[in-house]
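Hey, I was hoping to borrow your eyes for a little while. No rush at all, and the record is pasted right below.
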Amino acid sequence: MTEQDSRNLKNVMVVMLWDKTLTDEERAFIDTLRKRLDIEADEFQRLVAEVQADPKRLSIPKGPEGVDALGLLIEAAAADGEICDTEKKMLGKVAAFVGIEPGRLEQMFPDTPASLQQQFEITAAIEELYANFHQWDAATRTAKCCAIAAFGRPAAILLLQVMESYRTPDNETNSLELKILIAEQLGKLADTRAIYYLVQQISIGDSDDEMTSADQRAACAEAIAAIVGESFGQGSEAVQAARLWWQKTGHNQFNQLAM
């Protein structure tokens, strides 16, 4: 156990009391976290007493430790199944303190799973893409991809699966145009879960074959720029800028699988 561990557990208890209630799920979360942080019973009781004496006091450091602490607070706020408006407001203040933009904070919140109906509708729309892509004009192709992206975050993972797939649209020799359109929509969705996979598309080589088309790499790089709010330029310039960004800072934040 470290001093930071004690602060983290104390912060979590403060967060859980923001709505003035403590559910069974929240109590279980606190107990699990206490054990995970190897905090003994006597230390835990001391922290409980401090929270009871000053139930609104948070202790959040600056820098990477502060971002980690924020992540733990978000996990704690969601322990009862939802993050209420009061919790979101307070988390927003913590995020501002540690330097996290509001849009980035929203991306850190746990996902609300897509309903079975949404999954069915998104999957059906993707199957329609594969079946009819060859006979649609450019405007229709774009409109159909936009319609899938209009489902929001529930569509992101399914679109990424299209990006990762070797499958081609019916009666088409490759899937390059489809994947370029998908990359554009992923950029507009601004879902950070897509970054790791988009980076793989710009990192797999420079030959102009089906899997590493220059146009596809550029579309993926420009999508990354849109998601992270950077200016990478266009075309090959964007690809080089995205690769450099990933090497310097990106992989530390987004080097994780989401599917």
